[in-house]
Prior knowledge:
The complex is a heterodimer of chains A (229) and B (176).
Chain A: E1 2-9, E2 12-17, E3 21-26, E4 40-45, E5 48-53, E6 72-76, E7 82-86, E8 88-95, E9 100-102, H1 109-114, E10 117-120, E11 125-128, H2 131-167, H3 172-175, H4 181-189, H5 193-228
Parallel strand pairs in A: 2-11, 5-7
Antiparallel strand pairs in A: 1-2, 1-8, 3-6, 4-5, 6-7, 9-10, 10-11
Chain B: H1 16-23, E1 26-31, E2 42-47, E3 51-55, E4 70-76, E5 79-84, H2 86-90, E6 101-111, E7 117-127, E8 131-134, E9 140-141, E10 154-160, E11 163-168, H3 170-174
Parallel strand pairs in B: 2-11, 5-7
Antiparallel strand pairs in B: 1-2, 1-8, 3-6, 4-5, 6-7, 9-10, 10-11
Amino acid sequence: xxxxxxxxxxxxxxxxxxxxxxxxxxxxxxxxxxxxxxxxxxxxxxxxxxxxxxxxxxxxxxxxxxxxxxxxxxxxxxxxxxxxxxxxxxxxxxxxxxxxxxxxxxxxxxxxxxxxxxxxxxxxxxxxxxxxxxxxxxxxxxxxxxxxxxxxxxxxxxxxxxxxxxxxxxxxxxxxxxxxxxxxxxxxxxxxxxxxxxxxxxxxxxxxxxxxxxxxxxxxxxxxxxxxx
Amino acid sequence: xxxxxxxxxxxxxxxxxxxxxxxxxxxxxxxxxxxxxxxxxxxxxxxxxxxxxxxxxxxxxxxxxxxxxxxxxxxxxxxxxxxxxxxxxxxxxxxxxxxxxxxxxxxxxxxxxxxxxxxxxxxxxxxxxxxxxxxxxxxxxxxxxxxxxxxxxxxxxxxxxxxxxxxxxxxxxxxx
Lengths: 229, 176
């Protein structure tokens, strides 16, 4: 028997082992309501950036827009930079062994890794979430963003080189126009993709820290104003 | 609607004519959720032993990252079954939602390497107008039409007057 927390997002019910949960946080002011769901959001938690995964956003067909009135973020224990978006949290329940069933074999790959079991509830089924697999997915989402950006910059590099060759300019960096000095350095380093990736990671981490600091300072100033009033 | 119990083997389409006179085998044909091709309607053919139950209502629980032909899972008699779209399995274009539909539970039986039989179940959504027919059918096998783009899960195609009858290998879909 294990204690599970059931939460719902996009009209899908999920269950998570209570031991995996560090904290359940109300949604932050920075997470605005949008028409379409975003699989990955960033919010500030205890002064640090936190990736919030909305699992329902990974479904192909249209899902209801997120509603913020009861929305919570389930902070995962052991993965301090990851949380799960929940439109609503149903509260803990004790799940018996007989209530657990394996996900049918037709579901393989990521689906099977992230939701290996299904929990029989009174009126519905809930997908049991494997936090480790989702954390890997979170990591891949970040990396794919970096890979896409690196690829775009490589395309830009190729286009610029072709343009420079056309113009008879042998130096592709000098031939490129409109790139700031940082971009030029990264573009030059694209000859070594591993280095480019590392640089991108450093830039991304720095940007996240700056954004988190800015949000924290803004909130502090707003709270000071409210106290004065 | 006849509800069947556990059997050792499902009826193989290739043996229909051989066994029909002895067993009086029956089949069901359900309309596919597609608008037909060249004016000919498309049906799925299942043996009576394959169709376990017709459900009135099923609560679909979608599964993120699942295959496109698996719409989700649902609970049936304490089991968790996948809900399959046969149209997506075969690459057919689904028709609009206004066609009356029916949800059925189908069974497939497969033999494993030890010689034991293994049963699998799945929920399938089909058109509502079911026909129960006795074998032998006045039909002939035809080549797989061009509008069936995914043929891996197709056991055979037959033409009965203007109707196309598709025999789907459910076991292959479930173990794909």
